[in-house]
């Protein structure tokens, strides 16, 4: 898209022209400018203090008119006067009504309008020029297959694989939905002269995913200028973004913050995001990051579990568990694990029910009580006399999965960089491997400690037959 020949890639405007565009379109700056930091060229464009800044004095550092905000609401407004945009959004059905779908199609339309050979479709607006200032982000979806192989054993590898599959499905859905629109068939999909390729959809996704921020009263949106700010977490975050009473986007320095002239004005992309998500969505690991912070590990229902098909059918939760740092320790949480560790002898049951339209569906029950949402299972188990036993099963299952992940990362090691692997992906993959390995070791220790505590409880001791329980015969359980 926006090309002079498919191989030349997207046309770009140099960032030093951005202030002219911003001023012409009503963006007001107060003591800041947008451009590269000379001493940090690798960080790309950012927001720089033109003078000494202090606290929240003097009003917003940036004010972006509400009509420039790329949001679901504003795209609806633009579509009322742009029949071509409206036509595509309508053709996409439910996807075109989502925020993500609407924004990606809006960006695609602006990219199409920028093509010098296309003059008979769409309505030009200020944002048509804005996307030319957005650089390509080196997200893992742009890594080569050899570079993605460096992620083996990390939680990022399956996430990137799933994302690429999802993007391909989206791209094909857009192609199928719009192929019958004459101008889309001509400009996007023509076998010889069509401009749109899968790489272009990857770029649109990277634009949105790396720059969308959640604004109060607006939702996920791209806000020109503010979305140029780089990330810093915790006390290092210099400024906050918000909307004012008129719906304009504003950037305000935090109370008590001081920035010298020439310093960088940073925002947070989300302090709770771990190393994996930062690479996935933004293509970097924050300087000085000493922990992966959070990991998502998948777990499977054993194939020899007779209830496996029914469990998979009724499951409404993510099939895995999360380990994360909190309050100086490692904790875990999962809704899915409870469905894995309980069975028919514990009280889990499934029945087939015929619906009013003649179809059949599976209903789940816990001790004769209907379980219409597996998210509620943990609460029911917590009230059961064998709660500590169920906890122990879950802990052992997760500990085994953590051990498996540790062994995988150890086996992979850190391969030497080859000439066909770029330095950026190679360094990021090595950092992520090291950070996740450290977190996994911490998780294993925490789970081992929790297991030891549970083994000492009276409920578990009695269940394992390690203490006398009247004249009852207790069968020892196998927790491996």
From TrEMBL:
InterPro entries: SET_dom, SET_dom_sf, SETD3_SETD6_MTase. Residues 30-270 form the SET domain. PROSITE patterns: SET (PS50280). One of its GO terms (molecular function) is protein-lysine N-methyltransferase activity. It comes from the Eukaryota. Gene3D superfamilies: set domain protein methyltransferase, domain 1 (3.90.1410.10). One of its GO terms (cellular component) is nucleus. This is SET domain-containing protein. It comes from Massarina eburnea CBS 473.64.
């Amino acid at each position: 898209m926006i090309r002079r020949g498919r191989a030349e890639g997207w046309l770009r405007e140099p960032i030093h022209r951005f202030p002219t565009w911003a001023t012409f379109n009503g963006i007001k700056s107060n003591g800041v400018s947008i451009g590269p930091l000379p001493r940090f060229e690798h960080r790309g464009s950012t927001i720089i203090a033109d003078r000494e800044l202090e606290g929240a004095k003097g009003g917003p550092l940036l004010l972006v008119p509400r009509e420039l905000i790329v949001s679901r609401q504003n795209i609806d407004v633009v579509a009322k006067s742009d029949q071509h945009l409206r036509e595509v959004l309508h053709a996409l059905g439910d996807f075109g009504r989502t925020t993500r779908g609407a924004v990606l199609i809006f960006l695609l339309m602006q990219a199409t309008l920028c093509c010098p050979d296309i003059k008979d479709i769409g309505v030009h607006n200020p944002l048509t020029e804005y996307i030319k200032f957005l650089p390509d982000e080196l997200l893992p979806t742009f890594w080569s297959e050899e570079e993605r192989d460096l992620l083996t054993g990390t939680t990022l590898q399956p996430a990137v694989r799933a994302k690429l599959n999802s993007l391909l499905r989206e791209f094909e859905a857009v192609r199928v939905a719009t192929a019958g629109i004459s101008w889309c068939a001509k400009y996007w999909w023509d076998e010889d002269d069509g401009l749109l390729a899968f790489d272009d959809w990857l770029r649109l996704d990277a634009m949105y995913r790396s720059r969308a921020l959640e604004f109060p009263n607006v939702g996920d949106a791209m806000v020109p200028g503010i979305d140029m700010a780089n990330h810093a977490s915790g006390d290092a975050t210099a400024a906050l973004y918000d909307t004012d009473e008129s719906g304009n986007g504003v950037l305000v320095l935090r109370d008590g913050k001081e920035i010298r002239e020439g310093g960088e004005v940073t925002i947070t992309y989300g302090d709770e995001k771990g190393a994996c998500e930062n690479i996935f969505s933004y293509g970097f690991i924050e300087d000085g990051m000493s922990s992966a912070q959070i990991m998502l590990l998948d777990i499977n229902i054993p194939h020899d579990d007779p209830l496996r098909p029914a469990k998979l059918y009724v499951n409404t939760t993510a099939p895995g568990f999360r380990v994360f740092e909190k309050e100086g320790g490692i904790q875990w949480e999962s809704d899915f694990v409870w469905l894995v560790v309980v069975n028919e002898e514990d009280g889990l049951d499934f029945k087939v029910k015929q619906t009013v339209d003649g179809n059949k569906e599976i209903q789940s029950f816990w001790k004769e009580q209907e379980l219409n949402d597996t998210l509620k299972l943990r609460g029911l188990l917590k009230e059961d006399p064998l709660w500590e036993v169920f906890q122990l099963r879950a802990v052992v299952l997760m500990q085994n999965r953590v051990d498996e992940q540790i062994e995988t990362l150890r086996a992979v090691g850190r391969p030497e960089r080859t000439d066909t692997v770029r330095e950026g992906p190679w360094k990021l993959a090595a950092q992520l491997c090291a950070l996740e390995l450290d977190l996994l070791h911490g998780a294993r220790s925490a789970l081992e400690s929790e297991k030891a505590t549970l083994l000492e409880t009276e409920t578990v001791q009695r269940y394992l037959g390690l203490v006398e329980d009247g004249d009852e015969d207790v069968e020892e359980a196998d927790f491996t």
